[in-house]
Amino acid sequence: MNCKAKGSRNERKSIAFLEAHGYRCTRAAASLGVFDMIAISATEVLLIQCKSNDWPGSVEIEAIKQFSAPPNARKLIHRWRDRQPAPDVREI
After folding, report:
1. Do the Cβ atoms of 88 and 60 come closer than 8 Å?
2. Structural domain boundaries of the chain?
3. Is the model more confident about 18 or about 2?
4. Does the domain formed by 3-91 have CATH 3.30.565.10?
5. What is the DSSP letter of 71?
6. Helix, strand or coil for residue 89?
7. How do the residues of the chain divide into helix, strand and coil, expressed in percent and rounded to 5?
8. 12, 47, 86, 87: least CB-packed within 10 angstroms?
9. What is the enclosing helix (H) or strand (E) of 26?
């Protein structure tokens, strides 16, 4: 499987995971922006970057930190390791 297909598959898995926890999600496919998806609940907004196997590098982490977001928004990284049923989640 190529990297792009694997990344798209993991983004869809994150959406399914979040929707199962009560969020409404939208994916920013091929946006080349800081975040891959946005998830919204009644009380918060999640800005999510998905990764496969590795955490993002320092430059990408810094871009996430510098991104201006409203106070009720949380910036998360979902790391999907191969053959794992749920992502590792890190809040930035």
Report:
1. no
2. 3-91
3. 18
4. no
5. T
6. strand
7. 30, 30, 40
8. 86
9. strand 24-27
In tens, the pLDDT along 46-59 reads: 999 999 889 999 99
Which two structure tokens, joined as six digits, stand for 77? 């990284």
**Prediction pTM value:** 0.88
Whether the CB-CB separation of 64 and 25 falls below 8 Å is answered with no
Contact 17, 27 (CB under 8 A): no
Say how far apart CA 38 and CA 15 lie, in whole Å. Answer: 9
CB 45 within 8 A of CB 24: no
pLDDT of residue 9: 86
SS3 12: helix
